[in-house]
TrEMBL record:
The lineage of its organism: Archaea, Nitrososphaerota, Nitrososphaeria, Nitrososphaerales, Nitrososphaeraceae. This is Heat-shock protein Hsp20. It comes from the Archaea. Belongs to the small heat shock protein (HSP20) family. It holds the Pfam family HSP20.
Length: 168
């Protein structure tokens, strides 16, 4: 075999190996993209013999504002579409838990069809407070889709006096 043939075969072998490495590199890159595009690693996926779980009902955490008024805390939670009878407020000395649910069912019967529609909404929020409150004196009311909760403090703190500061 001539030296040209040997050199040519070596070059072909290098090209084949380089192609192999490129394929392996692309394969690894593809697997890494697949792995990191998931919300959790594949080992944590739950595979059941009968399929996946049905979707859970929507539970949301309502937006909440808490203000320290000195003698009490005031919390405002957004609860649109939920009546006051469907809201549950429980209090301890250090927190208030608010939950509620609302379900609706619509049904329309006509000559050739039956139309059913159901919806379910629920919410839950635990509001911790930095100072001890008096659970028995808490007041709550719903006004225009907003739940207002007044939580009297056990030992009221003084509100800071307002002082005008000159801007230089």
């Amino acid at each position: 075999m001539s030296s040209k043939n040997v050199e040519k075969k070596e070059q072909e072998s290098i090209v084949k190996r380089t192609g192999l490495f490129e394929d392996v590199g692309r394969s690894i890159e593809h697997e890494m993209e697949r792995f990191f595009s998931r919300p959790w690693p594949p080992a944590f996926e739950l595979r059941l013999p009968f399929g996946s779980f049905p979707p859970l009902p929507e539970v949301r955490m309502p937006l909440c504002d808490v203000v320290d008024k000195g003698d009490r805390y005031e919390a405002n939670l957004e609860v649109p579409g939920i009546e006051k009878e469907q809201i549950d407020v429980k209090a301890t000395r250090n927190s208030v838990e608010v939950s509620g649910e609302h379900s609706e069912k619509k049904e329309e019967k006509r000559k050739n069809y039956l139309y059913n529609e159901r919806s379910y909404k629920s919410f839950y929020r635990k509001i911790p407070v930095p100072e001890e409150i008096i659970p028995s004196k808490i007041e709550a009311r719903v006004v225009n889709g907003v739940l207002n909760i007044s939580m009297p403090k056990k030992t009221p703190s003084k509100t800071d006096e307002e002082t005008k500061v000159e801007v230089k």
